[in-house]
Each structure stands twice: as structure tokens, then as C-alpha cells.
Amino acid sequence: MGFGTLLRLLLASLVVGVVVTWLDVEPTELVARARAAAAWAYTQLRALTGDLVHSVGDLVGYVLVGAVIVVPVWLLSLVVKALRRR
């Protein structure tokens, strides 16, 4: 990862931080909401799958929890790539 990439990540973080602050949203609130959504989805999935497919429910729960982190990072990388093309 080069210096240019680090600079772009820094600038993207600055822009996102300004917008989130302007919207008066606390980062801890975003994380808490994401965790609550993942927990709700996991609970609903477990209720649907029951004990017979307990391991599949665990797997999907792990995917949902991981997606809370992976998807925003992926979206940020798309934004960074789009800015790089300009």
C-alpha cells in the first residue's frame, strides 16, 4: 500500500467524518445499530432454522456479523477507486 493510497484513505475518512458529524450521528451509535441489526437477523434466522440446521444458522450469523465490517470497507474502496479514476 503506497503513500497515495494512505492519503486517499485519510481524505475519504475526513469527508465521511465531516458528513457524519454534520448529520449529528455518533460513530458508536452506528456500530450499536449495526450490531443490533445483525443480532436481530441472527435471532430471526435461528427461529426459522431451528435446531436441525443449527450450524448453518451459526454460519449465516457469522457472515452477517462479518458483513457489517466488510461491506462498508468494500464500499469505501469503490469510492476510493472512483476518485482515483478522476
Descriptive report:
The chain has 86 residues and is mainly alpha-helical. It is elongated and about 50 Å long. The chain has three helices and no strands. The chain has one domain.
- Give the terminus-to-terminus CA distance: 19 Å
- Average pLDDT score: 81
Fraction of residues in helices? over 70%
Shape: elongated
Q: Which structural class do the helices and strands define?
A: mainly alpha
> Which runs of at least 5 residues are low in confidence (pLDDT < 50)?
none
Give Rg in angstroms. 17 Å
What is the makeup of the main sheet? none
The number of helical segments is 3
**How large is the share of residues in beta strands?**
under 5%
Return the string of H and E elements. Answer: HHH
Counting DSSP E segments of at least 2 residues, the number of strands comes to 0
- The tally of structural domains comes to 1
